[in-house]
Design brief:
Blueprint lengths: L1 E5 L3 E3 L4 E8 L7 E7 L6 E7 L5 E2 L7 E6 L4 E6 L8 E8 L16 E2 L3 E6 L1
Parallel strand pairs: 2-11
Antiparallel strand pairs: 1-3, 3-8, 4-5, 4-9, 5-6, 7-8, 9-10, 9-11
Length: 125
């Protein structure tokens, strides 16, 4: 299984970015897939995830600003990030697991078996 992220960039505060994560070799019919982020010196933080039922879950810090969607046929998830803030600066990682997002704690990173290499998002004030 490979998760390939793309879309990270440097933007100014208030700007927008769209991240993509394409999964290859991932054939499970049940899954939870989405994004975590980690800023230097900080713990990993759950951003947003979505499962095979298609209902996304968002971390409190991004609710109302970020939107997670998926293309099931392409096994790709998209994170539309609007009204970006300097606090959003981090390495963003795509993650996936082979069971739904509503079992256990969705933001517990150790429950995700598959990870991408990350894409950097930098927001300047």
């Amino acid at each position: 299984v490979q998760l390939q992220e793309s879309g990270g960039a440097s933007v100014q505060s208030g700007g927008s970015l769209r991240l993509s994560c394409a999964a290859s070799g991932f054939t499970s019919s049940t899954y939870c897939m989405g994004w975590f982020r980690q800023a230097p010196g900080k713990d990993s933080e759950g951003v947003a995830v979505v499962d095979h039922d298609g209902i996304p879950i968002y971390g409190d810090a991004v609710k109302g600003r970020f939107t997670l969607s998926q293309d099931k046929d392409k096994r790709t998830v998209y994170l539309q990030m609007n009204n970006l803030e300097p606090a959003d600066t981090a390495m963003y990682y795509c993650a996936a697991r082979t069971y739904d997002c509503w079992s256990g704690v969705w933001w517990y990173r150790h429950d995700y078996r598959y990870w991408g290499k990350g894409t950097q998002v930098t927001v300047s004030s």
